[in-house]
Design brief:
Largest sheet: 8 strands, antiparallel, barrel
Strand order of the largest sheet: 1-2-3-4-5-6-7-8
CATH architecture of the largest domain: Beta Barrel
CATH topology of the largest domain: Lipocalin
CATH class of the largest domain: Mainly Beta
Structural class: alpha+beta
Shape: globular
Radius of gyration: 20 Å
Distance between the termini: 73 Å
Number of domains: 2
CATH superfamily of the largest domain: Avidin-like
């Protein structure tokens, strides 16, 4: 009876499935492992990386939890910048949720914390497309600024792939309540003008985004760690004194 019940919900499920070991059986059913990561990730991410990312997330992911405003160059309006809103949220199992939105577009996915870098992968179900990111992080402090590269598709007729240099600034901490966090994320998107007003983006940020492509590496976009703007909170000299 139980086998038949599961077979109605999992294609091809038979009595032989009960002979699988626990990790394989969990993967067959599409449930998560004890570290919060989907078992299906084992098919395309080595276990050693998942284990390292889980350990790193349990130690440091809370430093990245928050609502972030990203700044990147516009592909349609040269010289102008766009703002997205990103939410990074972790739990005590080592799972990091990564969501990004601009106007009516919403990407939802996961992130992995490896060393001092945050690797993200997210999907927009409505447009059936994906977004990937690698961001420079911080070693010990609470992150206030991140920078890196994001790869996604343009909203043109051919869904052309594009790589953007991105800088993220923390604009709010999370509420600690899941529904509250989602409401804050959506409210931040609604309040944000996607097209940055002319003159509103500081010149050092514009220069930083532009410097990801250099004459010594034609065709290559890179966010070098030695010139990264990623940092924790700025120290208040008055507080130190």
């Amino acid at each position: 009876m139980l086998t038949q019940f599961i077979a109605e919900r999992v294609d091809g499920f038979t009595m032989l499935e009960w002979e699988r070991d626990l990790p394989s059986f969990s993967e067959r059913l599409g449930v998560t492992t004890g570290n919060g990561m989907p078992n299906s990730m084992a098919g395309w991410i080595p276990d050693v990386l998942i284990e390292e990312a889980t350990r790193g997330a349990k130690r440091r992911a809370s430093a990245y939890d928050g609502i972030w405003r990203s700044t990147r160059s516009s592909s349609d309006l040269p010289g102008r910048c766009l703002h997205d809103i990103t939410m990074i949220r972790s739990d005590d199992t080592g799972l990091i949720e990564f969501s990004s939105g601009i106007e009516g577009v919403r990407y939802h996915g996961r992130a992995m914390l490896l060393q001092h870098q945050l690797f993200s992968i997210a999907a927009d179900e409505d447009s059936v497309t994906m977004m990937f990111g690698i961001f420079n992080g911080v070693a010990r402090q609470k992150a206030e600024v991140l920078d890196g590269l994001s790869v996604a598709t343009l909203r043109d007729a051919g869904s052309s792939p594009a790589c953007s240099a991105v800088i993220l600034h923390r604009i709010a901490d999370l509420t600690g309540d899941r529904d509250g966090d989602i409401a804050l994320f959506e409210a931040s998107i609604a309040a944000q003008n996607p097209l940055a007003p002319e003159g509103s983006v500081p010149q050092d940020i514009i220069d930083h985004l532009a410097n990801t492509t250099t004459i010594d590496a034609p065709g290559l976009m890179r966010m070098l760690f030695q010139t990264s703007m990623a940092r924790g909170p700025l120290l208040d000299p008055a507080a130190i004194g």
